[in-house]
Design brief:
- The chain is α/β, with parallel strands linked by helices and 217 residues long.
- It has one domain: 3-Layer(aba) Sandwich (Rossmann fold).
- The chain has helices spanning 13-16, 49-64, 77-87, 109-117, 136-146, 161-171, 189-196, 205-215, and strands at 2-5, 24-29, 38-42, 68-71, 92-95, 121-124, 150-153, 175-178, 200-201.
- It has a nine-stranded mixed β-sheet with strand order 1-2-6-5-4-3-7-8-9, sandwiched between helices.
- Strand 7 (150-153), helix 6 (161-171) and strand 8 form a beta-alpha-beta unit.
Length: 217
């Protein structure tokens, strides 16, 4: 396990730019100071068929275009985004709301190992033996967005950690993308709300690629 301080040359450059960056990061795997096109992909833990198919579609194309997928290793959209990235031989980073010796949810221990094995990384601002809590998860979300050029919210109800990540992204000056959904679908209410608040509605991954490439020029 590596411990990387804020002054270390390997500390992620984008994360340095946010308000209140972690003073140190704990890392398992390979961490770069600058990812070419890092994008956070987040959403509900209670994923629907629509959310599953949309995540598969977007992440498949984005990874093949060379994007690094960043998420929180949670159930639902997060875990699926990591998995699809791995299946496409892409790079993915997982930010935990616990010490790296406590994989949460436990169901994703195998996924965590696969991320490291593939050349990606697990990251946390919390030292070993720190258990996840209602406080650590929201704080974790600022790192997910802080590592990224933008945040894609695929499916999320109004009361969702994904919206916390989107709010941090806006505060950090990062792009926020949201996939629209049906007005009667509870899992789409958060995305539709973000769009009304100014997030960019996206229905195909090429729209994200075009915007991120213009940012990174």
């Amino acid at each position: 396990m590596l411990t990387i301080s804020l002054k270390d040359k390997n500390y992620p450059q984008l994360l340095k730019e946010i308000y209140g960056p972690p003073k140190q990061l704990y890392c398992l795997g390979k961490l770069k100071s600058k990812e070419k096109f890092p994008l956070a992909v987040v959403g509900t833990r209670k994923i629907s068929f629509y959310g599953k198919k949309t995540t598969e579609y977007f992440v498949n194309v984005l990874v093949q275009a060379g994007l690094t997928i960043i998420s929180g290793l949670a159930l639902g959209i997060d875990g699926l985004a990591h998995q699809i990235a791995l299946e496409n031989h892409g790079r993915t980073l997982a930010v935990l709301g616990s010490g790296l010796d406590i994989i949460y949810p436990p169901k994703h221990k195998k996924l965590a190992k696969e991320i490291i094995k593939s050349g990606g990384a697990l990251l946390s601002e919390y030292p070993p033996k720190t258990r996840p809590s209602k406080l650590t998860f929201p704080a974790r979300n600022r790192i997910v967005s802080g590592l990224s050029l933008g945040v894609l919210v695929i499916e999320a109800p109004i009361k969702s950690g994904a919206l916390i990540t989107a709010r941090f992204a806006l505060e950090q000056g990062r792009e926020v993308f949201a996939v629209p959904g049906g007005i009667y679908n509870e899992n789409s209410q958060g995305c539709n709300f973000l769009i009304k608040m100014g997030a960019k509605p996206v229905t195909k991954p090429e729209e994200i690629l075009e915007i991120l490439k213009s940012i990174n020029q």
